[in-house]
Write a structure and sequence with these properties.
The protein has helices at 2-20, 27-38, 44-65, 67-70, 79-114, 117-137, 153-164, 173-183, 188-214, 220-248, 254-278. The protein has one domain. It is built from 11 helices and no strands. The protein has 279 residues and is an all-alpha fold.
Length: 279
C-alpha cells in the first residue's frame, strides 16, 4: 500500500512538472509547494536528481514535437532548409553559453542559498508584475521579429543572458527568456518557440551535471520513480506545449502574470504559517 501511495505522489510530481515547465509560471515554484504538501519519502540526494530528471522528460517532448524542424539531416529538406536548421542550432548554442558557464560554476551555491520558498515567492511576484507591465506596453505592438528564423545571432546571445536570470529559483526559465525575447522585439510565438528549443541543451546539461555530482546509487524502486516521473512529465508536456502555442496566437501573457502573483502570495502565506507553527 505504501508503495502505491509513493507512486501516486510521483504521478502528481510528473503532472505538475509536465504542465508547468513550458508555461511562464515557474515549475520550481509549483514543485516546492508539491514537495512540502505531498512529502515524497526519499533522500535529499534523490530529490535533487529527481527534480532535474523529470524536467528531462519535459524536454524530450520538445524533441518529439519539433523533431522534423530541428533535424538538419532530414533527407526531405532542401539544401537551403538544412542550412537554416544548422543556423538555428548555432543560435541555440550561442544562447545557451552564458547559462552553461555560470550554471556550472554556481550550481551548488545557488541551490544552497537561493533554493528556498521566500526567494521563489519573491521571483514569482516580481516577474508576474513584469509580465503585466510589459504586455500593457506591448498592447498594440507590431513585433519586428515574427519567426524564430529572424532572430539574429546577437539577439540569440542577449536572450541567453536573460536566461541567466532563471538560475534564481522561481524566476521560470521560459518566463525569463520569453520576457527577454519580447523586449528584443520578438513576437510571442517566436519567443515561446525559441524558449522551447533553448530548453533542450540546457536541461540535458543540467541533468548530466546532477547525475555526475550525485551519481545513480539508487534502489530499483527509486529508479522506477525516476523513469515514471519522466514519462508522465513527457506525456503531459506534449499537451502543455500545444496549449501554450495555441494560446499565444490569440492572447498575451498577462494572465500568467496575474497567476504568478497569486501563486507567489500563496507560497509566502503557506510557508509563513509553517514557520509560525514550528516556533
Amino acid at each position: 500500500m505504501s508503495v502505491l501511495i509513493e507512486f501516486l505522489k510521483i504521478v502528481v510530481f510528473g503532472l505538475v512538472e509536465g504542465f508547468t515547465e513550458w508555461l511562464p509560471i515557474s515549475s520550481t515554484g509549483h514543485l516546492v509547494l508539491v514537495e512540502n504538501i505531498v512529502n515524497l519519502d526519499a533522500s535529499e540526494n534523490f530529490m535533487r536528481v529527481f527534480r532535474v530528471v523529470i524536467q528531462l522528460g519535459a524536454i524530450l517532448s520538445v524533441v518529439v514535437l519539433y523533431f522534423g524542424r530541428l533535424n538538419p539531416f532530414d533527407p526531405r529538406k532542401k539544401a537551403q532548409q538544412r542550412n537554416a536548421t544548422w543556423q538555428l542550432w548555432f543560435k541555440i548554442v550561442i544562447a545557451c553559453l552564458p547559462a552553461a558557464v555560470v550554471g556550472i560554476l554556481l550550481d551548488e551555491i545557488l541551490d544552497k542559498y537561493l533554493y528556498n520558498p521566500y526567494v521563489i515567492a519573491s521571483m514569482l511576484i516580481i516577474y508576474g508584475i513584469l509580465f503585466i507591465v510589459l504586455e500593457k506596453h506591448n498592447e498594440f505592438m507590431d513585433f519586428p521579429v515574427k519567426k524564430v528564423s529572424q532572430i539574429s545571432y546577437l539577439n540569440a546571445f542577449y536572450i541567453g543572458l536573460f536566461q541567466l536570470l532563471a538560475l534564481i529559483p522561481g524566476t521560470s526559465r521560459s518566463g525569463a527568456t520569453i520576457l527577454g525575447a519580447m523586449l528584443l522585439g520578438c513576437s510571442r510565438t517566436a519567443s515561446a518557440e525559441f524558449t522551447f528549443f533553448l530548453g533542450i541543451p540546457v536541461m540535458f546539461g543540467a541533468s548530466l551535471l546532477k547525475i555526475v555530482h550525485y551519481g545513480l546509487a539508487f534502489t530499483p524502486q527509486e529508479f522506477f520513480y525516476l523513469i515514471a516521473g519522466m514519462v508522465i512529465a513527457f506525456i503531459v508536456s506534449m499537451y502543455s506545449i500545444q496549449f501554450l502555442m495555441g494560446y499565444v496566437k490569440k492572447h498575451d501573457f498577462r494572465f500568467f502574470g496575474y497567476y504568478r502573483i497569486v501563486l507567489g502570495v500563496i507560497v509566502l502565506i503557506y510557508f509563513g504559517l509553517m514557520t509560525l507553527l514550528s516556533l
